[in-house]
Amino acid sequence: MKDQLRIIEQAAQAFHVKEEEIIVKHRFLGGMSHLTYLIEVHGELYSYRIIGKDGNLFVDRKIELENINLVKPLKINNDTVFFDVETGEKAAHFVEGEVLSTLDFRPHLTEVSNLLKKLHQSGIEPASDYGLIERLNLYETYTNFSSPLYIKLKNAWIEMYQDEHVHQPKVFCHNDAQRSNMVIAKDQIYLLDWEYAGLNEFYYDIASFGNVKFEDALELLDTYLGRQATKKEADSVRFYRMFQALQWHQVALRKEMIGLSPILKMDFKFFAEKYLELANRLYIEIKG
């Protein structure tokens, strides 16, 4: 109720209307970090995001807004109508459709591939580099905890990155291209939530698609390439999924540390362990 009252107050200011003109319809399910609600203003539907506890530690909101504006010409995101760079609160036109995570993704692999290619091949320069190693170092400062296995895997990842990937071409990436951020609408497929967008190797977005089951990312890779991927190409997806697992391991540790497990009814300690196990499995597969 407190969040809904806040949304009504903030949305009224953002849309320059009276509070009674804001209708909060319901909260969207899912999301490990933020609360997002569907609201109605003068007959129009919008999504309204409130940042969860510590959510702004991991994202530069000024960069997020800049990237949102940069991809506008591509027409692959919903239109943002309000953005507060201090709080991270955001309102955007609601996209009517089916979230891809609720569907069988295989009939939509070509759509997903074309969507990502449109971004990757756009030639648009994002607001910043994703900063892979720097990002891990930053996240570690929020937990002050690195297990021996984490340190081993991080060091191994950095060595592989410097040997094989640091000089590879980079493109505008979404960097969180999981199915829950894709909506199949009547007219097209949309890619939402650009918090982590930045310069990266295209394999990173392919790897993000495998957030539920890694092998799904390899299916997307074949579609993206238009042929069966080589072992080296598949290992590049494993390599970036390994990074993502290390990254989200640290994020999950932070969420457990600040007591979000009982609040959000999610066992973040369990997730942290599973992410580390995944990173280790992928490393073994790459080396094997």
What can you see in these coordinates?
The chain has 288 residues and is α+β, with helices and mostly antiparallel strands. The chain folds into two domains: 2-94, Phosphorylase Kinase, domain 1, CATH 3.30.200.20; 105-179 and 195-287, Aminoglycoside phosphotransferase (APH), C-terminal lobe (Aminoglycoside 3'-phosphotransferase, Chain: A, domain 2, Alpha-Beta Complex), CATH 3.90.1200. It has ten helices and ten strands. The chain has helices spanning 2-15, 61-70, 109-120, 132-141, 148-165, 203-208, 214-225, 231-257, 260-264, 268-287, and strands at 22-27, 35-41, 44-50, 80-83, 90-93, 97-99, 171-173, 182-185, 189-191, 198-200. Strands 1-2-3-5-4 form a five-stranded antiparallel β-sheet. Helix 5 (148-165) crosses helix 10. The N and C termini lie far apart (52 Å). The model has no long low-confidence stretch (mean pLDDT 95).
